[in-house]
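Q: Here's a chain of 427 amino acids. Please give me its 3D structure as tokens.
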Amino acid sequence: MPAVVLIGAQWGDEGKGKITDFLAEQADLVVRYQGGSNAGHTVVVGDQEFRLHLVPSGILYAKTVCVIGNGVVVDPQLLIEEIDGLEARGVSVQNLLISGRAQILMPYHKRIDELEEERRGDYKIGTTKRGIGPAYMDKIGRVGLRMVDLMHKDVFASKLKRIVEEKNHLFKQVYGVPGFDYEQLLEDHLRYAERLRPHVTDTSVVIDHAIVAGKKVLFEGAQGTLLDIDHGTYPYVTSSHPIAGGACVGAGVGPTRISRVVGVAKAYTTRVGEGPFPTELFDELGNRIRQRGREYGTTTGRPRRCGWLDVVILRYAARVNGLDQIAITKLDVLDDLPHIKICTGYRYNGEVLRELPESLEALAGCEPIYETLEGWQQDITGVTRFEDLPVNAQRYLRRIEELTGTPISLVAVGPKRDQTIVRGEVY
């Protein structure tokens, strides 16, 4: 029963797209279980770069079935644009399936997201303004629309009419801006329905049958552990559950079906948006890492904040996800550094903390405690075996294993598929 959950072990942007693509070659199914078009997974195949947002990263393998699970909020317009872009480049989406239970992200969700972020001023969250939060709010408020509704014209039309009336009242009375035209929204979405209809099904059944049949299923998370709505650095988080437990809810499978959890982490730390970041580098070194690692958001293009590796965060991710393994990405970005630091704990109010504090204010006041290791200062992008890495690179990885208590099974030394060192079995 080889069902593997792949999660981000930091604040997202860890390189999950590359690792998912690498593992998808052996997978029968790749399942995206949460998030929306705010996610961005970059996959490099040869000289081609693919930027995926809603379509699972396994789509580049013709034999792999790719599933958008019920926990995802689907923007039909953007999904169709993404499908068109893939097909224009010769990538088939015939094996793409969409859960009928997945919530639909509507244009009014994006408008609300933009208006609310503007109203927050200095207290903004740093959202992508893709409408993700408002879509999940409607889901939890039980006033959302689902893909299964979109497949039935009369049902969708009736529900949409009532919702648009309520939203337009909100836009007029609260925000003082124009609302949306019901007829235009209906026309647009009925057109989307016909395009997406062949892909919509009960994906929970498909996934369960595959696992029972002994097929290899890879669950792909978006964002990262520290952006989880419950376990992240709230309120600077996303609106869903990127952690491993979210895979069960967002894909419709029981926890006993999961056989392994793999956490993806960069060899350093980055985050996008607002919120505390204890190991952030504000100097030229931080900018150097950003430039060398091409640390700009796949979805927004925003520059990512960069800092040293924080194993307090990694230990936290190992605990709340139940990590069996870690995949380290972008090790090559550190190639030219003479010394490399690892944050092993925090100082806060005269105390040494080894665990991530629950309080955001406490985290903001934490001073990182560093351990310094010697760098390797040589190009590792062509290395294919762990034993052939420079000794100091091996020491760095082994120290991460010691500090997290979790073995490293994969090491990425570049963006391409063949720039991946395999140290252990994943499936």
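Q: Can you summarize the key feature?
A: The chain is about 35% helix and 20% strand.
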